[in-house]
Amino acid sequence: xxxxxxxxxxxxxxxxxxxxxxxxxxxxxxxxxxxxxxxxxxxxxxxxxxxxxxxxxxxxxxxxxxxxxxxxxxxxxxxxxxxxxxxxxxxxxxxxxxxxxxxxxxxxxxxxxxxxxxxxxxxxxxxxxxxxxxxxxxxxxxxxxxxxxxxxxxxxxxxxxxxxxxxxxxxxxxxxxxxxxxxxxxxxxxxxxxxxxxxxxxxxxxxxxxxxxxxxxxxxxxxxxxxxxxxxxxxxxxxxxxxxxxxxxxxxxxxxxxxxxxxxxxxxxxxxxxxxxxxxxxxxxxxxxxxxxxxxxxxxxxxxxxxxxxxxxxxxxxxxxxxxxxxxxxxxxxxxxxxxxxxxxxxxxxxxxxxxxxxxxxxxxxxxxxxxxxxxxxxxxxxxxxxxxxxxxxxxxxxxxxxxxxxxxxxxxxxxxxxxxxxxxxxxxxxxxxxxxxxxxxxxxx
Length: 446
Description:
Elements: H1 15-24, H2 29-47, H3 56-70, E1 84-88, H4 115-122, E2 126-131, H5 159-166, E3 172-177, H6 183-188, E4 192-195, E5 215-220, H7 223-233, E6 249-254, H8 256-259, H9 263-278, E7 282-287, H10 292-310, H11 312-318, H12 324-334, H13 338-362, E8 366-370, H14 390-395, E9 399-406, E10 412-418, H15 424-438
Parallel strand pairs: 1-2, 1-3, 6-7, 6-8
Antiparallel strand pairs: 3-5, 4-5, 4-9, 8-10, 9-10
């Protein structure tokens, strides 16, 4: 919902269409760069998705000119030729400082470029710049606002990445997820968000929050573009593992997990399921997550302890520079008994096995559930509650959110889909058809 004071600042820039246009030459690369830079000039002061960079436009134009010189023949161009890429400011990228949304000295964090960034650059992408993150990818927010309505958060911790893609500054962005930092903001901003199976995307060159939970994520405006990006960046991508030529069987995790969502989110979820069933999907309701409180407790213990572990030297020297929420979690982690940590870490494997057993027993292809408790909260003092994402992240399962209508206040809602471990190809293979079925203006079906 727009107002004259805070109109929507979203702009169309789907990855698959953009990449094909740039690669073929139908879309002029320098014109694409100029258009993106003009959007940034006009709207970034209000959205604040990007880490400031003097001379950004000149740098990008120079890089684009060199890319055209290197690949003059469209037939020889890489798949992401000239596509603009946002990089969450906890990834190392050559030519950019890593600051992690923190007040600590930036020289503490520098290192070799993340292989995820390198892989996308080798595929032809140009780094638009660093995107704003909450402090060390935890709770303390940056200044970024939701392009759909500037009065609302875009979500976090990948705040700048999701806002940059929604605003059309770039067609692809890197984020991370330790609890819900890819799926939640993607839903809040009406995007496709993807968190692969744990370990499918390399984490070197990344400032680690929790070594047992951190997973690299991606943002695009389109399901087709997400499939393209994932095939480039995920380890051992197997095109032959695409899904069978039928509608997926969807499982609804009934019980305390689903009960967390707001009445509005649950009403929207029922409508989403109805559209998918009308398109031929089978929906089965399965009792799950009976031990939800224990799952949440495990996640908290691992996050606190492993954040304290990752920051031990920095925290000792610069404690006063940490913001309150981050400092509090580190202090909590320092008090955890090593024996308890070992026990709770084992819980993620047990949860994955339990979910696999439930899926096999009910004959499910995918889980389906709300991506968030509801639409993006008002204000930017909080990035929203990741409750609908936590359990799937802990199990390390591949998760996807697709745009799925709007709340009463006009802000986007998302549908979260989760596949078995290492079934990423199947999940994304079904994504385009499911996205079309969820679009009220589409006549196609999955």
